[in-house]
Amino acid sequence: MKKLITLFLITIPLALSAYTWTPFGPPGVHTNDIVFNVGANNITVVCANDGLYLNSGGTAWDFYTTWGLPVKGAVPFNDTSFIFIMGNSSWSDGIYLFSLNSLQHYVLEWAYFPEFIYHGQFNDCYYVGYFYGVLISDDGINWIELSYFNNKHCVSMDCSYDNYVISELSNIYDIHYSGDAGKNWQPASCPYIISDLRFKCTGELYGIFPDFSNSSGLYSSPDYGQSWDLEAYSDNMSTVGYDAVGNIFTGWESTAGASEGVAIFNSLSKTFDFVNNGLPNKNINKFRINPIMSSIVNFTCTDSGIYIIQNYIVGIKEQLSSPNQISVFPNPFNDKTNIEINITETDQNSTIEIYNSSGTLIRSLNIKSNKKRIQFYREDLKAGVYFVRWKYSNKYASTRIVISD
Q: 52: which of 64, 251, 282, 290 fits an S-S bond (Cβ 3.0–4.6 Å)?
């Protein structure tokens, strides 16, 4: 599977233009989640409304039925299996083990209307939220009720180190948090219904207030879910996610509201930059990243398939430049690189600006009119993706640079 991922990284840029989604996975399928690097062979698993789709290399996706019940999510378990949840209020709802050897699934525990499955890596426990509470397992096979959540309709979970957060669909206490990896829980000070929880890689927690109300929109928590602040109002938001460098992606459920599809949220300006090119279905169910991919890539699960996007810039508007306007070599680089610009208006001074992936200006260099090449030193910058913008005569050209470890 790692060879397959490498092939994607080589071939996708040939097919993509900036801000364009392209199909990935089984076509035309209502998808709820995608899980990468499952089992010893790094299989990709797609959780869909009609069953499971598995890819172990190549372009073919193998389908495995779940008796018409929707698969809501999955987590890797060991080298030969994974755990998944399925159901929509039936006697077959629950937690299942899928064997990659027998290609069969086996029931582990009944759970009415399961909403999420989660693996808390800090305490190595598995969690399933469902209509009547939360089930927990320390071995993935034997499940018990987490008594604190009895009779609470739990819909989402995430963690950052030993800070665990679960959201409940209720009008009393909607967010519950634990600062000791799930040993003790308490309600948060949250007057909102937050239905989706996502920690950024930098520790900030985001969630959404769905549907149509005066409080609907995107929210954030600076203290691991204990208190919440409004980031932006928006009706009918369905999910929130992030990419490998922490850019916030937001999705909407349908075109019924003022917004639709996918946007990248700018936390500085509190605005949404919509990125819907190439996205035929704008009912967004989930965002995911593949942790072994070495480029900035995001996947979205929609009502008619999974789509992948790359080559996007956040914070500053992307303006594609021709190769003879601005170039960087070597790229990627570790210590230093050369930035070369093509100055056609020799009587004009210009400026080289370096932005991080969130669009924040971190370096600014004034360039004399007769200088076409400069050396740029990494100094204290962390490894990651940055953007070089050349400003000249009220015009701009930009390109991307990558600093490696």
A: 64
Residue 394 — φ and ψ, nearest 5°? 60, 20
Domain count, the chain: 2
Round to whole Å and give the CA distance between 331 and 339: 10
Give a yes or no: residue 210 inside a domain. yes
Which pair of structure tokens corresponds to residue 72? 């809501």
| CA distances to 83, 156, 217 from 110, in Å | 13, 19, 33
pTM for the model:
0.75
CATH code for position 224: 2.130.10.10
Look at residue 295 in the predicted model and tell me its pLDDT. Answer: 57
Is the Cβ–Cβ distance between 57 and 44 less than 8 Å? Answer: no
Distance from chain centroid for Cα 129: 20
Q: Choose the final residue of a domain: 276, 310, 344.
A: 310
Task: Say which amino acid occupies 64.
Answer: Y
